[in-house]
């Protein structure tokens, strides 16, 4: 219950100042959004705590948000509301499960004609690239080494991680978030095993934008590897400026939810639980955007990562996609 700027948590009142000190929750998310989350998740959280002296939904949400935004259980809110680190851990688990359950409602790729047309217009305003439905990338979130000798989670940079394939729109809203991939998989392998790949195989209009790590497909436009003409250079510039949206979006997610920021450490969980926490933060990102928060308010500035271009054998190349890209370059960038 919220009364005169205070949130009632069982027998405890926590004021706006306390919430601010708890992982900067107030500045990151705002009281109205935190209140919205409590009501959204209340039924699921109440069902998980039907026992004597159960921790209230308000406490569970605040404890979990404190972990997501700081990456640590040793938070000010734990002291303020008088619950142990073990209790905070249970709160994080409960809230994460409740948020993952909400993923299909908050992360959706609408492809009806009106949604497509709106997407085309919004992306074209960015840098003039036509008929874009979304921008695609695969990102890595550091985790502790699994207990087994499994090396499938060791990524190309040498640390253990889970891979997350993201697609977002021009506003930074996530259209797809598949968070369960072992970090050792190549981006192309993740793509080919993903739900979005199956969904777009027979796409006859519009495309995603992917960087040089991905294969060119009729539904996936990639940069020209060695541009020669002014039109090809212009195409690449427009592609880079548009594709950057997905990079900015994930940087903003990492900054708002610091438990995902590999520069601050790594998630101390199994790959499965780490993947759930990652998906929960993606749900929170979309829910916050839909509640009126800015996607990139919390974005941190980092130098862009340089990627090696995908080397394709001749038999792997898609001649139809190559012809389609040539037509696109001639028709819109020459």
Automatic annotation (TrEMBL):
The keyword Metal-binding applies. GO terms for molecular function: hydrolase activity; metal ion binding; nuclease activity. It is found in: Nucleus. Residues 302-322 are annotated as: Disordered. This is DDE Tnp4 domain-containing protein. Its cofactor is a divalent metal cation. Residues 136-286 form the DDE Tnp4 domain. Residues 305-322 have a biased composition (Basic and acidic residues). Keywords: Hydrolase, Metal-binding, Nuclease, Nucleus. GO terms for cellular component: nucleus. Belongs to the HARBI1 family.
